[in-house]
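Hi both,

Apologies for the delay on this - the queue was longer than expected. I finally got the adenosine-5'-triphosphate-bound model through. Below you'll find the protein sequence and the ligand SMILES exactly as submitted, and right after that the structure tokens for the full complex including the ligand.
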Amino acid sequence: MADQRIAGAVKSALGAVEIPGGGDLAGYAGLSEIIVTPGAIAFAIAVAPGMEAAFGPARTAAQAAAEAVGEGRKVMVSVTSDRAQASQGQPAAQRAPGPRREGVPGVRHIIAVGSGKGGVGKSTTAVNLALALAAEGLQVGLLDADLYGPSIPKLMGIEGKPAMRSDGIFQPHEAHGLRVISIGSMLTADQAVVWRGPMATSALRQLLRETNWGGLDVLVVDLPPGTGDIQISLCQQTELTGAVIVSTPQDLALIDAKKAIDMLRRLDIPLLGLVENMSYFIAPDTGTRYDIFGHGGAELAAHRLDIPFLGGVPLVMAIRETSDAGRPVVASAPQSAEAGAYRAAARTLLEQHPHLRP
Ligand SMILES: Nc1ncnc2c1ncn2[C@@H]1O[C@H](COP(=O)(O)OP(=O)(O)OP(=O)(O)O)[C@@H](O)[C@H]1O
């Protein structure tokens, strides 16, 4: 109810925001639905291609107007032009080049962790890889950009919204030595579905740029699975050091992973490595290793695809259990064999890319 009341108040406040060509924003046909969550307000202003800059002052005024009635919520306003429609029929990654890629202040390197499809253990890998990089002495942050299945808060044992400074900048959660922020903290379960397209990419952009990362060597970004708009806009707008791909051996010919790899190549994102998850099974009673899906497939595929192979992570109950309990294995059992697999992957990554080190 409060959400509807606030959405109404924002809409009224937008009545005082003038737009180019006359009229006000509340009555403008390009204004999207106003989404209100416990922590945020988001809406988009669709404009004709080329009109983005002209709408800049209206965006700023809209932001201030919404903040004034938002009862402390973070306001995310995006101005979007309808380029996507103009370029329909072309694969997304072949569209006209996007805006200039920008770095994130206070962050030396950004590494995206992606996968071709869901459920391969991408988030689990992102979390443990981030922790393993921190164990190597790097200052590491973690951004959960998986809007449709944000799992980082659970994996890292984080609850509630991040704190916000008086100037509207997020203060990330601190967990297991990492600075963490999740798009999931901003949404209730049913809202991810609504919060799609330009609003999702705009929300991600703001989370990335309006967080006090406080000096990081590496920010690990857990992408949504697949090759959608969020991945493409992040790659087009942000100066990424590169991407790590997670795949399972079941994904035999890595068909889905290859699609993700292909998208990243088209977007000129360096491929830093491939992690094979649920690679082998260690019997809990005897400790014997079983290569249930055959051995070496992903390594061979990585080689053929010319991507460094960062190693295999075993399928072990401890990984699932510690994840479910918000105590990821690299933090809670750093000496275990499974933590060792992530640590080995992080070391290989650092050997291949020594510039990631401070
Ligand atoms: N190596 C592993 N051994 C055992 N369980 C694992 C392993 N890796 C991931 N899991 C479990 O598999 C499930 C899926 O993992 P995760 O959420 O990381 O996948 P994902 O690819 O990020 O999925 P989504 O696409 O839904 O975000 C989780 O229950 C997780 O605990």
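Main takeaway for now: The first strand starts at residue 35 and ends at 36.

I'll put the files on the shared drive as well.

H.
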